[in-house]
């Protein structure tokens, strides 16, 4: 089976989901789509199960924080069609106070730790996840450190001021 | 002639056929020259410590021949490298498993203060969880600096009293770390 172009991929998706999926861009040839949390699992399931597309490999689930946007938290899925050697990226943006999104563990078991990591660092709540708790940080941490609101350095400490180091 | 230096005897009363000193000093001498370090190496400082142990710098010249990875046998904990917050409880448990008397060296900027990693995941100095006797500066420190820290520990060991563990200040120090 040969490679298919982004146009063909996009046509198949828009045939299925019409205007529920929009294109954000195509940086370096990587088709980047945006959708909502209501249809994200349907979109992922379609991409995975469609006999020609076969995006069977969930490369990554991660998130991003854009404090200046109305919907600040973006959850990002990277899929790879191993058969066709084509990648696609799907983003879902969520408002800060309402960071719920359905879990992808129903489609890929490997989503389990990816979603735990995304919860750990960005506080995204994956509804239906079997074990949504911190994975890399200490359990008693209260903040989500990869959000831009998290201070890079502790503002109260004085022992690392520049003048102590001749700067 | 051999150029081996033998450790000087502690101050005491000396005469023909006898030598008298206090038990503190005799035991301090023995302890200081037979320290058993426990290397807790997590990053680049650990590599410098490997050089310190190897033939060029040869830590065993100081009686620290037997590096022990068993906290029950070791009496000097050498923490070398970045300690992540998640590693904190592990390091603390290693310290707790060591029997008294025990000493701690924090080698390098990370173990001493978190170093350049002023961030959410890194412990900002191991003295937040365990008491430290000697801090070795540097990022990473050269083997000479580690040896200097080691010699400073030996000075401490030589001069401290046998009853250090029972002293109220020491109890207070440990209590401030939540240890008994």
Question: Can you tell me about this structure?
Answer:
The complex is a heterodimer of chains A (167) and B (180). Chain A is an alpha/beta fold and 167 residues long. Chain A has a single domain (6-165), classed as NADH:ubiquinone oxidoreductase Nqo5 subunit (Beta Polymerase, domain 2, 2-Layer Sandwich). Chain A is 20% helix and 25% strand. Chain A is built from 3 helices and 7 strands. Chain A has a 5-stranded mixed β-sheet with strand order 1-2-5-4-3. Chain A has a two-stranded parallel sheet with strand order 6-7. In chain A, strand 3 (57-65) and strand 4 form a beta hairpin. Chain A is elongated. Chain A starts with 5 loop residues before the first helix and ends in a 40-residue tail after the last strand. Chain B is of the alpha/beta class and 180 residues long. Chain B has a single domain, classed as Rossmann fold, CATH 3.40.50.12280. In chain B, 34% of the residues lie in helices and 13% in strands. Chain B has helices spanning 23-32, 44-53, 88-97, 108-113, 143-159, 168-176, and strands spanning 13-15, 18-20, 37-41, 76-80, 103-107, 134-136. A 4-stranded parallel β-sheet of chain B has the order 3-4-5-6. Chain B has a two-stranded antiparallel ribbon with strand order 1-2. In chain B, strand 3, helix 2 (44-53) and strand 4 form a beta-alpha-beta unit. In chain B, helix 1 (23-32) runs antiparallel to helix 5 and helix 2 (44-53) packs across helix 5 (143-159). The mean pLDDT of chain B is 90.
Q: What's the overall geometry of chain B?
A: globular
CATH fold description of chain A? Beta Polymerase, domain 2
The structural domain count of chain A equals 1
Using the CA coordinates, give the radius of gyration of chain B: 17 Å
Q: How many H/I helices of chain B?
A: 6
CATH architecture assignment name of chain A: 2-Layer Sandwich
**Largest beta sheet of chain A: what is the strand line-up?**
1-2-5-4-3
Enzyme class (chain A): translocase
Catalytic activity (chain A): a quinone + NADH + 5 H(+)(in) = a quinol + NAD(+) + 4 H(+)(out)
Family (chain A): Belongs to the complex I 30 kDa subunit family.
Subcellular location (chain A): Cell membrane
């Amino acid at each position: 089976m040969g490679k298919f172009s982004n146009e063909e991929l996009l046509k198949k998706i828009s045939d299925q989901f019409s205007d529920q999926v929009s294109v954000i861009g195509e940086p370096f040839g990587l088709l980047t789509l945006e959708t909502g949390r209501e249809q994200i699992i349907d979109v992922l399931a379609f991409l995975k199960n469609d006999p020609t597309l076969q995006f069977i490999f969930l490369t990554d689930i991660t998130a991003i924080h854009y404090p200046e946007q109305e919907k600040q938290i973006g959850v990002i899925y990277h899929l790879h069609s191993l058969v066709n050697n084509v990648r696609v990226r799907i983003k879902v943006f969520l408002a800060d106070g309402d960071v719920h999104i359905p879990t992808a563990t129903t489609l890929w078991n490997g989503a389990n730790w990816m979603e735990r990591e995304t919860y750990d660092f960005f506080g995204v709540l994956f509804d239906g996840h079997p074990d949504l708790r911190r994975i890399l940080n200490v359990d008693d941490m209260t903040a989500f450190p990869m959000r831009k609101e998290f201070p890079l350095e502790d503002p109260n400490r004085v022992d690392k001021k520049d003048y102590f180091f001749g700067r | 002639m051999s150029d081996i230096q033998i450790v000087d005897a502690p101050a005491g009363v000396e005469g023909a056929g006898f030598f008298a000193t206090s038990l503190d000093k005799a035991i301090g001498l023995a302890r200081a020259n037979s320290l058993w370090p426990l290397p807790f190496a997590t990053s680049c400082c650990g590599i410098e410590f490997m050089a310190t142990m190897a033939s060029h710098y040869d830590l065993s010249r100081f009686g620290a021949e037997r590096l022990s990875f068993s906290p029950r046998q070791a009496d000097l904990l050498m923490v070398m490298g970045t300690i992540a917050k998640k590693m904190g409880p592990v390091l603390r448990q290693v310290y707790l498993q060591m029997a008294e008397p025990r000493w701690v060296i924090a080698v390098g900027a990370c173990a001493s203060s978190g170093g350049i990693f002023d961030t959410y995941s890194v412990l900002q100095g191991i003295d937040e969880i365990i008491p430290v006797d000697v801090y070795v500066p540097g990022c990473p420190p050269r083997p000479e600096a580690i040896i200097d820290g080691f010699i400073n520990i030996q000075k401490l060991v030589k001069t401290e009293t046998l009853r250090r563990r029972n002293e109220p200040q020491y109890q207070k120090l440990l209590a401030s770390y939540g240890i008994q």
